[in-house]
Amino acid sequence: MWDTGRALQIAAEMRRYNLEVLGINETHWTQVGQQRLASGELLLYSGHGEENAQYTQIVALILSKRAQNALIGWEFHGARIIKVSFKTKKEGITINIQERRNKEAATNTSRTRAEKAKAPAEYTEANKQVKRSIRTDKRKYVEDLAMTAEKAAGEGNMRQLHGTTKKLAGNYRK
Hints:
By secondary structure, this protein is α+β, with helices and mostly antiparallel strands. It folds into two domains: 1-88, no CATH class; 89-174. The chain is built from five helices and six strands. The strands form two sheets. A four-stranded antiparallel β-sheet has the order 1-4-3-2. The protein has a two-stranded antiparallel ribbon with strand order 5-6. Strand 5 (71-76) and strand 6 form a beta hairpin. Helix 4 runs antiparallel to helix 5 (158-169). It starts with 5 loop residues before the first helix and ends in a 5-residue tail after the last helix.
């Protein structure tokens, strides 16, 4: 991002690809601060403390309007690191599969007509809940992998970063 007018162009690309947060490096801002773009995005940047520093080792984040609503705070730790905190909703991993199996068994072993009519409806509802919980569990798993990868990258642990990236990409066989 050496050119000055690139921030608006990058913000337009963020909207085009439906990105909420975008990290960029080697920006032209050498100080620490934030700037609201004309399109509404918020730019957070962390550079060198010196005024005549080179345009290297400077990082920035562009936050969409939705990400700005979830922003709790941010702080910089040197020229290469920005720590940003967001409000999130953490859900515990739910297990409804056994309940669904019990309802399926009840469907198969029901004896009266009333039980036979009621059991499939209960099974269908339990199946919907299981599928919903599986989607949330997968989402939580991927988010946890992404957090692990970020932590490994921050610590410089390349082995863990490589393994986690392979898991995220779906190319992991172990």
